[in-house]
Write a structure and sequence with these properties.
five-stranded mixed β-sheet; 2 domains; about 20% helix; 1 helix; Ctag/Cox11 (Pfam 04442); about 35% strand; alpha+beta
């Protein structure tokens, strides 16, 4: 029995198939790229908007101080798996908007080994995050402590005077600054040139 003769695909059909395949490939590439960009974009978004109580990072003190006073409460937590004591030097402080303040947290490594941690942080009410400016903070770097080591760590901050112009913050009298230290993998020590450890010279 003679098979029916198949006509070769037209140029328009081939072009359509190419466009569809190209579009699908582009969509997949876009989705993969978006997944890698999601974390840095989310971090940027939180820093820019104060979303979730994310504080801001300032380079210098503001130019003026207002008479409005806010009480800042300092909270401290340690996640499971990190054998540290961690607490602020004081629990509360009254600050004027725009006033630069330095407070200290103390951490003690209670383990008989070197341990490393890094702090996550936020403020509450979360809507005040965009006004809470840090000039210096231990949370920006990992902290590695020797067995039994005690360390005092500074936080330098101010509450932006712009908070006073936000009608949603008219009833805000207290801001809680909360830190939680989590276990972190200690950075590897650099190896001396030649791969051999350096000797203990006299």
């Amino acid at each position: 029995m003679q098979q029916p003769h198949r006509r070769p695909p037209s140029k328009s059909a081939s072009r359509r198939d190419f466009v569809i395949a190209f579009a699908c490939g582009g969509l997949v590439a876009t989705m993969v790229g978006a997944s890698f960009a999601a974390v840095p974009f989310y971090n940027w978004f939180c820093r820019t908007t104060g979303y979730g109580g994310t504080t801001q990072r300032a380079e210098a003190a503001p130019k003026h101080i207002t008479d409005r006073v806010i009480t800042v409460y300092f909270d401290s937590n340690v996640a499971a798996g990190l054998p540290w004591q961690f607490q602020p030097e004081r629990r509360t402080i009254d600050v004027k908007l725009g006033q630069v303040v330095t407070i200290y947290y103390k951490v003690i490594n209670e383990a008989a080994r070197v341990t490393t941690g890094q702090a996550a942080y936020n403020v509450n009410p979360t809507t005040t995050g965009i006004y809470f400016e840090k000039i210096n903070c231990f949370c920006f770097t990992q902290q590695t402590l020797k067995p039994g080591e005690t360390r005092d760590m500074a936080v330098v901050f101010y509450v932006d005077p712009k908070l006073a112009a936000d009608s949603e913050q008219d009833g805000t009298k207290m801001i809680t600054l909360s830190y939680t230290f989590y276990p972190a993998k200690a950075p590897e020590q650099p190896v001396a040139a030649g791969g051999a450890p350096s000797g203990g010279g006299g």
